[in-house]
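Predict the 3D structure for this chain.
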Amino acid sequence: MRTSLQTHQTPKGFLFDMDGLLLDTERLGLKLFAQICAELDIGPERSDPVFLSLIGGSKAVNSAKVAEFLHGRLDIDGFERAWVAGKATLLADAIPLRPYVREVITGLAAQGTRMVVVTSTVGAVARHELDQAGLLPHFHHVIAGDEVTANKPDPAPYLQGAAALGLDPKDCAAFEDSDTGITAAIRAGCMAVQIPDLRTPNTPLPNLGQRVARDLRHAVEMFGMTVTSKQA
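Done. Predicted structure below.
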């Protein structure tokens, strides 16, 4: 994996993706997608690549992909009902977080850092899951997939995230796990860091000039921000 050099520019605002970056929900999604497909006699060798292709996509784009994949087996409304019910069951006890997320977000909030979530997930779901995870109060705004003029990889979500803080995107650090998301952040002009999570095997990261970090703590340290060393 490429290494990244620490920058001397301190961001005025921090913009975070949600699924796969803050919340460790992509693995649960992969498991749930495989379960739904298994009930339709579709094995993981076929379902897993399709799910991985959905990561970072908008609801509209992903629904179209799923509808095409399941055509003749289950309509999209039936799939979405199964998805909502299954996800509620998997997340009933707790929302899992990616490494160091609670430590980093609470630490940055304590320092007065201005933070926004920029996610492709619809607003009601995003705010509910962030609240359930205990993270929502730390963010100034949530820019959701149904609240933007265009979805990632268009720069619009990150432009709106910066604008919500009254900042120029070039003064904001943006953190993403997916190729779709990091493309949006780079196009918006943010100081972008990619923290890869689930990926299609043997697929290299896009070469967009982004920094690459192993986890969120490593990513924020690239900007000279320090947090405690205890993993959350």
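The chain is about 40% helix and 10% strand.
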